[in-house]
Amino acid sequence: MASEATQVESEPRAGGPSALLEVEDVFKRFGGIHAVNGASFLVRPRTITALIGPNGAGKPTLFNVLPGFSPGDRGSIVFDGESIFRRQPYEIARRGMVRTFQITKSLAAMPVIDNMMLAAPDQPGERFRNLFVHPRAVRSREKEVRAEAMELLEVFNLTKLADEYAGTLSGGQRKLLELARALMAKPRLLLLDEPMAGINPTLGKRLLDHMQRLRREDGVTFLFIEHDMEVVMNHSDTVVVMAEGRVIAGGEPHEVRRDKRVIDAYLGETFHDSEQEGSA
Asked: Is the pTM of this model over 0.85?
């Protein structure tokens, strides 16, 4: 039986599919606890969707289920018209859904530039035979990948650290490196787990501006978990709100921040009152 969870939608791209990601009645249980308890929502192409909710709402668990890092118990996840429910993470990544982690996963004993280049798709040099049969193609593609990596490192102010070991970077720098590396994979849907955490405001603004540009120019779709309400309300097209493993509300930011269910479960009256004062 379908749950009564909110179906969250945003505007589709003209001529494109009605939804890039469709999540319906997804459940994930740990022992006797339903961490995700029938979550359902939609993400349209070329949009930025924020996933919010109180601690214990099930957001990180859902973020693990979507790209296959943790298999869901039951439900449906359709990405670009194809079911990816309980598929392997590498299969989902190849289809264009890539995620970052709240706790960064950089390869500490490798230089920053190598961390970046490893994420690039379609590298003939990954096949040993091509090193001898197609050496020119290998060198050409490696040159392209390095140039792409350096361009992204410049966006996130990491160019000077390209040859440093990733393990020597600060926490905020490692988070930026992980985001830049995810973009090297040419994702169609990028899942970001608290991208603003540990990043100074200047770099945070640069990151948000780059997200908007990627959405506008390259058609990248974003789904992100975030606790910074200023970021959520001012930089997302759609907000999905979870509580106790379910989606309790969703819509445009101005709609969600006035929703009584959201105020009671997460935002609180103080936030609501401050919003009203700010708009007065």
From this structure: no
